[in-house]
Design a protein that fits this description.
It is built from six helices and five strands; from the N terminus they run H-E-H-H-E-H-E-E-E-H-H. It is about 55% helix and about 20% strand. Strand 4 and strand 5 form a beta hairpin. Helix 5 packs antiparallel against helix 6. The N and C termini lie far apart (about 95 Å). It has a single domain, classed as Beta Polymerase, domain 2. It is an alpha+beta fold and about 240 residues long. Strands 1-2-5-4-3 form a five-stranded mixed beta sheet. The structure holds guanosine-5'-triphosphate (GTP) and magnesium ion. The site of guanosine-5'-triphosphate has 9 residues, from helix 5.
Amino acid sequence: MELKGQNDTIDSWKEVNLIYNAALRQVQTKMEILNEEFQHVHQYNPIEHIKARIKTPESIVKKLKRHGVESTIENMVNHINDIAGVRIICSFTSDIYRVADMIRNQKDIKVIAVKDYITYPKTSGYRSYHMIVTVPVYLSDRIVDTKVEIQIRTVAMDFWASLEHKIHYKFEGDAPQHIRTELVECARMVADLDSRMLMLNDEITMISYELEVAKIKAEEEKRKKRLEKQAQEAEA
Ligand code: GTP
Ligand code: MG
């Protein structure tokens, strides 16, 4: 594989690898910190787990060919948004939007594009929330704003996407109609499952909250009675 260097900020594959790896690690660490802080404040983890990967040189070259452009470092940096990719897996759909907001609120992360395939699923049935962001990578002599693709989805959406990807790969994008129909039907079931699990979780959260309030009220009542009794005893 040959990637010619013409870009004056990033000029070799080795440097590309170093910079995108640094960007990937930064986003991953930021997400882990946010998750830990959320756990500390709310006793709850919006992120189930995180996967991160750097696109292989082979698939970068393949994608550049698909775009009809020459395999140069400059084209790769300009045309390919998912050289660094982070996948964030959440339990519930509401967590996805919570995590997306937390990303938006990070001062040094710049969001350059968003695709909400949850509100608007693809015809394949694919559902996921995508963000293309840049993070500043601090080198010894300069700062390089580096693109990272962030995909945020639920465990169920991820389960569906990995099987669909396997099928897509196996049939080279031309799966038999009955398999595609079945996949769309499964995607509908996944969406239904996600919304039912979310409703259940909301109900459980509400019940726990009500139980907590009832407990506090009962303790307060007990304390009041004890004080009244003490006052009566003092009077007697
Ligand atoms: P790519 O050139 O494939 O990266 O797509 P794009 O630049 O048009 O962006 P898009 O947001 O559509 O897709 C980005 C990534 O999302 C892909 O590289 C896949 O990882 C994932 N993705 C998008 N559509 C599908 C789909 O139908 N099925 C699965 N399994 N994954 C998908
Ligand atoms: Mg991709």
